[in-house]
Task: structure prediction
Amino acid sequence: MPKVTVCVPTYNRQHFLSIAIASVLAQTYTDWELVVCDDGSTDGTPQMMAEYQDPRIRYIRHETNIGKSNNMRSGYEAATGEYFIKFDDDDRLTPDFLRQTSAILDQHPKVDFVGTDHWLIDEQNQRNPEATKANSQRWGRHQLPSGIVDNLLEVVFVQQSFQVGATLFRYSALKTVDFMRPNLQNCEDNDLFVRLALAGKVAYYLPELLMEYRFHGEQQGLQRDIRYLADKVAYLEYFQFDGESLEKNRRSRLAESQLMLGLRLIEAGHNSQGRNLIQQSSQYTRGSRKATLAILLSYLPLPLSRTLLNRWRKLRPADYAQQVRQTQNR
Result:
């Protein structure tokens, strides 16, 4: 049995997938198996996977699309390793990732998972040091000390410092919480970390850049934003915390996500649905300029509301994802 199972879920990303697989083959630690789970790709992924003859690589193909988290679960359920990592088909592991992270789990039997920092890369696989530094600061990793993490729930929920693709888990810890919940397409990684923290699991942070996360154009678009925000709302509604500070943070983020989803739905022409979400968020957003604008837009004809939204976006500061892409385009 291999010590580590590496799972790479994929869907219609043949070119990026080959790069992800190459990063596993290049690991300095060799006691691994790779499970590629394919969510019904319609490109050349099946043909490409047939060319791999390495017995450590297994390919699970779903003939129809079963959904992101369900596809990930199929890789998790097929795993035989004591340790487990899932990273996306457009990302990469650095050559020393498995050696360094597995050594920590070997040395610290009470640690359930070890997370690392990561590079940001572009479509040409180029690392962006400036964006990487800003990313580490945004998610609090720049001030997270090496070693066992205190206040884990705050770190994974408020700071959101851990990234699932840059984390090696004990399979037994994942089994305790049944890995990722079925039928989530987005925020399934945040959800997993919160459930692990609530279950009393122990995390270790290794402040090394041992994974590469890719920003690219496929991650943009109105319909993608709607799906992401709808799942984010569902994720934030799922939990309720005992601590006053944590619960206040959750409710505030839920209201902001409802407001943003409402705006996106109005932009897509679903005015009534969008207006209802904005009204739900009113406990925290009442009186804000954004909430007032959103309600007004919901009563306007679609062409006019889209025009006003585009003008408003040009006036407001770029959000985090836009800032990263601007940095990469310099």
The domain at 4-218 is CATH 3.90.550.10 (Spore Coat Polysaccharide Biosynthesis Protein SpsA; Chain A).
